[in-house]
From TrEMBL:
This is ATP-dependent helicase. Residues 1-40 form the DOD-type homing endonuclease domain. It comes from Deinococcus arboris. PANTHER family: SNF2/RAD54 HELICASE FAMILY. SUPFAM superfamilies: Homing endonucleases (SSF55608), P-loop containing nucleoside triphosphate hydrolases (SSF52540). Residues 399-556 form the Helicase C-terminal domain. The lineage of its organism: Bacteria, Thermotogati, Deinococcota, Deinococci, Deinococcales.
Amino acid sequence: MAVLQGLLDTDGYAGVVIEYTSVSEALARGVVELVQSLGGTARLRQKVTTHVYQGERRTGHAWRVTLKLPAHLDPFRLTAKLAAYRRPTKYPPSRGIKSIEYVGEKEAQCIAVAAADRLYVTEAYIVTHNTVQALAHLLLEKDSGRADRPSLVVAPTSVIGNWQAEAAKFAPELRVLTLHGKDRRAQFAQIPAHDLVLTTYPLLPRDITELGGFSYHLVILDEAQNIKNTRTAAAKAAGSLSARHRLALTGTPLENHLGELWSQFNFLAPGLLHDEKTFRDLYRTPIEKRGEASRRAALSARVRPFILRREKRDVARELPPKTEIPVRVTLDGDQRDLYETVRVTTETRVREELRARGLARSTIAILDALLKLRQAVTDPRLVKLEAARGVQGNAKFDWLQTHLPQMVEEGRRVLIFSGFATLLRHLEDWLREEGMPYSMITGSTQDRQGQIDAFQSGKTHVFLITLKAGGVGLNLTAADTVIHYDPWWNPAAEEQATDRAYRIGQDKPVFVYKLIAAGSVEERILDLQARKASLARGILDGGLSDATQLTTADLDRLFAPLEDEEDVVAG
């Protein structure tokens, strides 16, 4: 908005209509795009101009844009022009069908938008989530001749193999270059000779000097939530890349807070959601801290025209059913005593921290305490305390020892997700002892594709996966059972993990087991999960949600004593 205001302050006319005039066609078309991106309408005309230069009469060309903006937007900053501007009180900007003509293949993006008049289409900014859809778009761009330079995909390390496989399967005509490994620097000179270049988020900032030396047709961020923190090197490097178009592919544009959404839009269309401070004052603080429905509705209306959001119920109606099964295990004996010991010790430290530093500055202490509580209920072997040695009870592992062998005997293929890599290594030791074939992906796994291929081909029946290393990007439709061993703070991350199995191509019913220690901190985490999911739905779909800021009451609930099974059922 600030860019448009600057241009109109300099070369704009204010009155009943707003006009902008320039001798630059590119600048005039840029104004048209800015106006349309803000929900307005613009008409571009070419004018023949005359002028006298050194006594000689000359003719030239100028471009005039007649535009209309929504009433709540100020087109000018200059006081005089703003005073002369007659803000429309009726007949707001609208778009309608003037004619229907066959034009053959033309560039068309963001075709399923939620604008009020259902016709708003963006040309360069899309939020979507589909590797194959992106490849199809790249192929059409190449066939039409528009893609006369390479396109760059930045993806998590774990999914680079998936991009290679999908490109070979669905778009074999594309010349693909993968920049990965120690020898990649020798490949930079080959970039112009390829249609599609693949790199990863960790490598992007390291290679930005070389990658930033090219101008791309498309820059595609896969799992774009990886740039949710604008201060990371990857986010800064992504924002510096030069491209005609930018795409953000993600199933979870909003995971924890609204600042993540701002970061992705700052990559796609800088300025659309203002600068970070203005966004925080205008939207994030009123929505997250005060739950203001009007601000939430305003933000939703602003971003929805730029989001192509396709849910499984809309585009994959042929998918078999998915059944979610909460499994509540009971902590007994030593494990119950350990939980209470950890709870009392950590709560004391947190309360001291709160008194000394206040809630806002005690985040690290709070998260560390909750981590220890989660470890105690997940597996006592994760707790690095003297009191944890020799603990006999292990409720979740007892459940797994009973049910997993039965599942495998029935021919089921099982994914086990956990946030703790150490926990998976304990499960790995047990699977080896049982002689049960398994695959495994953690942050330290080297041959990821080999692990995936072994599971998909049937050589292994169980797949151990950490949420961060394998919760996104993997295609594991051979699985029909998903076990979430421990709940994650972020409900979107769990959904993404489940979707490794429950995705297009799945032809079997999928069963999702969520192991929860009854009456413990895990059940209270689920309450916070529900609030985060509600916030995401409110912004992306325009619905309502409560504020999501962690409060003192939340802490009291999280650190409450372990409830008895009878109390949990009664509550």
